[in-house]
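Tokenised fold entry reproduced for absentees:

. . .
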Amino acid sequence: MSETQLRVLSLNCWGLKYVAKNRPERIAAIARALASSSHDIVALQEIWVSADYALVRNSVASRLPYAKYFYSGALGAGLAIFSRFPIIAATIHPYSLNGSPIDVTAGDWFVGKAAASVLISHPLLGQVQVFNTHLFAKGGEEGPDYNRAHRLVNAWEFAKLARQSAELGRYVIAAGDFNSVPNTLPMNIIRDHAGLSDAWQVSHPALHTSSTPPSPSGAISAFGVTADSPLNSYSSGKPLEGMARRFGGKRLDYIFFRQPTKPPASDKTPILTCTNSNVMFTDRVPGQEFSFSDHFGLEATFEIRFPAEDVESVYHAEPTMPTAGAQSRGSIAISSTSNISSSVPSSLTAESIVPILQSLTACYRYSKSRARMHLTIFASCIVLLLGLIISSAWLPRSWFSPIFVFAAVVVAWLATTMLYVGFVYGRWEVNALMNVIEELEIMRGGIGTRYDSRSDR
């Protein structure tokens, strides 16, 4: 295998125990597919069962001998990275905001969404930091501004980590389920502040311009659809958002990359370029009627080039139209001969920060109001408990006692929950939002230019 080529795969496995359909069969099929693939780095999300991780690791150990499974939150981060190259360090950064502890149906708070990363030693690139993440799920572009704030905080923290890694002189590859379609605020933060290039956009510079909606397979080829596709057995037939219906699904999974900010001083500094990206695992599991996951996978192929190989062509090559490749088992492949500049995109501008601050500020005010409501409920529960205790002395019948005890337990549980959510979590959420707001205000040109955080403390 040529060391000048690097193949990366990202896949959301939908591996939540007891909830995800056909999980054992699907994970086994994913493990078999990965064992026969030629990827150098594999990033998996939603692989929450440790036995599933062990199955995948044993299947790919001969090809990808280095692996890291990450733990976070009460149920684990669900993130794993497998590598052909030695892992010399690993870390995980749980996001400051992951939803509310009382939002049990969403579950993000319990799993502890995070940015995980490994530092690998590549024979040509040197140190490469590989990130794997799964951003906060709820809070799309529709609805109130405060619904988007937690995902924006995730994106901001992820972008800072990637940027800092590049400033340490490392190459950066970032993969995962970002739960956001292109050109939304979270993706703009990640691309612009971290200086990351989108592998799909680089290798697919041509846009679908026809007024006729593409077919489901055409949507995958044109837009890189990885979720809510009619071709996916778990999406087919379910009600979809307007964007998913219009574009044949949504692109939520990405692979990003960038060069070091300060590469080693040498006229032989390698340049990382993306030459190809494919949507993977689009077929059904062999012998079954269901898909590998509720998401498709995404792979990117990178070439490592050196100044002696005409770096000017890498910096200034005109993009060419992608050519359709043949559809292979489990993938729809699109090739491109276009190259990418290693220059870093500009950071967030003052204008681009404004809508981000609007969402964060709306959530800040909403969080303070919600915390007061929860504390009011706590105080009401205390009053009700006192009433139950006092009235228990005048119970007319003995069989009322179990009812009073049960009611007291329920009210005490509610009071404890409201105290934690209103005071502990409420302060945590407000402080986390304030930290990001002030960082963005500093970047924008000074605290208080749009929103004076100190006035609400």
About this structure: The first helix runs from residue 23 to 35.
